[in-house]
Design brief:
Length: 163
């Protein structure tokens, strides 16, 4: 999202529903999780339906988010969740470019990997959990919510990762 400041300067902002600075269930290790605001998938049984509305949440610059992430020395990586981060691809790419290289990146999306694999955002991830949540295929104890979803290992060429 671009927000106009003054007459000529544009500032990139990400619309988010919120963050968690210490999560153990949104990827491996200790994660800083960003819940992007906005999702058109509207999965029945969604864990975060409050993130669907593209006009809710708050705007924050990638720089502000990156500074907050860097303050958390105990984290292993960053997770983009939602809503769906792929509705704010450019903004999320701007954020990821500002993060230390040692932090791995997980992205949760309702899109199938085949739909988004050639995007810059997908290529910046280490792992993508893809597919719409399907309530009738609910699973527990996994890094995804339904059995149709996959963990894609991007650094290994987009191979499906078996837990």
């Amino acid at each position: 999202m671009l927000r106009r400041i003054g007459l000529h300067k544009e500032v990139v902002t990400i619309r988010i529903a919120g963050t968690l600075s210490c999560s153990l269930v949104n990827g491996y290790g200790v994660r800083y999780v960003i819940f992007c605001q906005g999702c058109a998938h509207h999965c029945i049984g969604c864990q975060n339906p409050e993130t669907w509305d593209f006009n809710r949440g708050e705007e924050i610059t990638p720089e502000e988010l990156a500074e907050d992430i860097k303050r958390h020395k105990h984290i292993d990586g960053v997770t983009l969740s939602g809503g769906d981060p792929f509705y704010q691809q450019e903004e999320c790419v701007s954020l990821l470019k500002l993060l230390p290289a040692h932090l791995d990146v997980w992205i949760y999306t309702g899109f199938d990997y085949e739909e988004i694999k050639n995007t810059q955002l997908a290529q910046m991830a280490d792992y993508i959990v893809d597919g719409k949540f399907e309530q009738d295929k609910l699973v527990t104890g996994k890094m995804y919510g339904s059995s149709n979803q996959r963990i894609i290992d991007i650094k290994k060429g987009g191979l499906y990762y078996e837990e």
